[in-house]
User: What shape does this take?
Amino acid sequence: MPITRDEVAHLARLSRIALSDAELDHLAPQLDQIITAVAQVQEVAAEGIPPTSHATGLTNVFRDDEPRPCLSPAEALAAAPAVEQQRFRVPRILGED
Amino acid sequence: MELTHMTAAELSAALTAGQVSATEVTQAHLDRIAAVDERVHAFLHVAADSALAQAADVDERRRTGAPLGPLAGVPVAVKDVFATAGLPTTCGSRILDGWRPPYDATITQRLKGAGAIILGKTNMDEFAMGSSTENSAFGPSHNPWDLTKIPGGSSGGSAAAVAAYEAPLSIGTDTGGSIRQPAAVCGIVGTKPTYGGSSRYGVVAFASSLDTPGPFGRTVLDTALLHEAISGYDPMDSTSIDAPVPPVLAAARQADVSGMRIGVVTELGGEGYQPGVLSRFAEAVELLESLGAKVTEVSCPHFKYALPAYYLIAPSECSSNLARFDAMRYGLRVGDDGTRDAEEVMALTRAQGFGAEVKRRIILGAYALSSGYYDAYYGKAQQVRTLIIRDFDAAFSQVDVLVSPATPTTAFGIGERADDPMAMYLADLCTIPSDLAGNAAISVPCGLAPEDGLPVGLQVMAPALADDRLYRVAAAAEAALVGQWGQPLLAGAKGLSS
Amino acid sequence: MTTPDTLVPFAEAMERYEPVIGLETHVELGTRTKMFCGCGTAFGAEPNSQVCPVCLGLPGSLPVVNRNAIEYAIRIGLALNCSIAPWGRFARKNYFYPDMPKNFQISQYDEPLCVDGWLEVLVETGHGEHRTVRVGIERVHLEEDTGKSLHVGGATGRIHGADYSLVDYNRAGIPLVEIVTKTIEGTGADAPVVARTYVTELRDLIRSLGVSDVRMEEGSLRCDVNTSLSPRGSGVWGTRTETKNVNSLRSVERAVQFEIERQAAVLDGGGRIVQETRHFHEDTGTTTAGRSKEEAQDYRYFPEPDLVPIAPSADWVEQIRAALPEAPAARRARLQAEWALSEADMTALRNADALDLVAETVAAGASPADARKWWLGELARRANEAATGLDELAITPADVARVAALVATGALNDKLARQVIDGVLAGEGAPDEVVAARGLAVVSDDGALTAAVDEAIAANPDVAARIREGKVNAAGVLVGAVMKATRGQADAARVRELILARLS
Assistant: This one.
């Protein structure tokens, strides 16, 4: 069994998605099935095969250190659920470190 | 002929000749949308006012003799994954319901610069994850050929809009087949350009290393027109290729395959494929041969691992890309009643704002990237990706293009695979390899399956930056087939397509 | 309210334990624009006025690498004697936090830009002794900074107890270079001062490269300190803690010292050191444990798909290397030799933050001795009074050199020179202008002086008599009288000559 219900619950927490028990019951077996299927990649003999993270082969794409027009504070905050003192107001944050 | 039944090329000629105004053309399409979209549900937002304003502007410029390009005054529908300043951009998701971006995607800017008329934003599977638009938070779109069938996905709305004559052109994105598969099942043309050939700036990301914006049209020439207009280097996108756009328009006009070497991919056929799809495909291949192409069989042995590799790479990238939807800066916010902390509000919002398929893929992606599993899943998938690229390289050293059916089956019924993710994923079997390699590929209609009378698509695949080869082959096939049928495939459709 | 930690006094702790330290330093680069977009980087702008779709992480936005950020990072790597990676990719570090617009940070994981270097630091171990410590550099890599939050509603403005937060994304996307040392062993009781000296030396080096103004008080230089203890002779490495919020050079030293004392007490008591992140408190010089997390963070690193690999060419790296300025340590050694200074003299200059000012004054024509005398003497006193740094005084090295030159030619004496300096500091203009405006030139004209000399002789007949008798030293009184009468502007030596001539 590649993935248990508990692991799915852990990954959901890691991904900040509050799954209900009903959802967990529904998704966990589906995910198990999917992971079993995608695990097929492990059958492929890939000793010494480099992984491809970028298909184009491009390297060294840069921009000059020159200013470009930015958004006005009004534009930046336009879609914010809550604004105060020209800042994004967010619910209280528990300390990170 | 009704304005809505003209091709983009025909409209362009009529507009240039002053036979019709952009305003008339736009109004005709808005009327068509009003008449049929309740049944098709291709559009999430119809931008009538701004479209008419754009049209008036084009008409004014033409009146003053200002230089105008071929797409000036031609209507286009835009998949709701593209940022359009001031217009809603939902990506088919509740979490972005009502969001109006403060900026335009590069492709949106190019369409506006070309004078194209943006009719509105089209329906899609949520965040481009799906093959049927059934994952849209706002209800599925319907296939104009048969309203009980899916129009494909994730760019189902864009395909349906064109097939239902609501727009002559539309744009979508292709990550695992999301342009070619809807094009095939809706009986129209759709191209996935070379990855990096069309800018991703302003395209809400699903799988960054795979997402490719591309064109839909009812004809190969129309599709080439749009392909050229939206493609080209963009300094705002680091993965954008700084090279001239391949000469797709010229290739579409050339439409001559004599001497071209065409490879039929062994692994993209056989069991699991609808017999009628296979027979229409085989006939199309014979036709190409009769037109002077040299046809051989080519094996791409690692293609059978393309689906599992894709369903590891894409979810991994999207699990990270979708992390930004956290209720803090824009979009839905749930549960902020003063008693909850930020993390709780994030988790409640995402639980309510995302649909089931999105949740599945985010969790799958988190799994594949987690420490301890990375090498066996994500890492391995990237190695498989290398092997698939090598299969393509080997194949293209022997042939100029590869061909296959675009999809294993014709359009399935709405609801048929909705809660069966694995069955749904199979719709992308033929299209995924090109996405993994970053190559160019097209789907062009090649007939109706005898079993169900639904469209079948012929897929042509070319190496990266050889997009023009797609149009050469597709245009040749189209000309010959339309010659056989006596009219475009779409013209023979019952119901909304005609 | 937690109970304060038990501590073992430092010297005692050193008897039983060997400290092992490591430092992670973040440097904000002084590029004109951000790491991945063209927004400005100026400090102190109105909230959310230097943001765009990219640094706000709006849906659809994409990063593009700032070429100067790469160049600056390579400069730092070369100055730290690192190898520059010929090929490497950025990576996503995935975690959720409201000050991170994308909820991932674009950073570098297993493919850093620069690796395997070193920095030699000269540590003052007390009693005028010095030792050289070679600090290994593990890696130097690039990443983007986060936004800044204000926490509202709590008692102290800190996160604990706050009701909600207000986020400003102006700083999101600012380029950061992270410099990680290899573990630093064998420093014994010098560990705290080694840590402080390393950070000081690193700061000076980076400042000399022109890539950042590296001010700890402004946050453009941030330091995290790792500390662990190994029981002496055991050969067993201890568990390390990471201390954050170390905002000054002095705090670096204090944080290491405190952690050593705290950890020694835990270990002495048979306890285990918890591998954790701790927070340094400026006011008490102590560290406290951060919020404990049930699950360790899994950042799910993977190569950033929106950016293509960075492959600096050998030519580009050599170009950058050739343009590197002289390293501060090498420059100091050179100046010390040129100016014939002792180690102690040099240290005095560095401690007073006067080295560059003195060097510029010498470059403007003063002798090293004069330059040092003015900057470490009168000007240091004035800076102290005004509670500012030497470099904030309203006088330039060129001004100081001019004053020294005027004294050397006899146009001013020391007392007058001090008045000229007053004038320059008060904003009255350049030294020559002050001299003219205030009429401060030394009076050497015999005619003017003779009158004053005669007056003084007339006013002090008994002193004059003693001088006539041969008691030449008494001339000093008359010289003083003339100086007073001329408001100190007389050339004292000439006055004395005139007096003696008059009374001989």
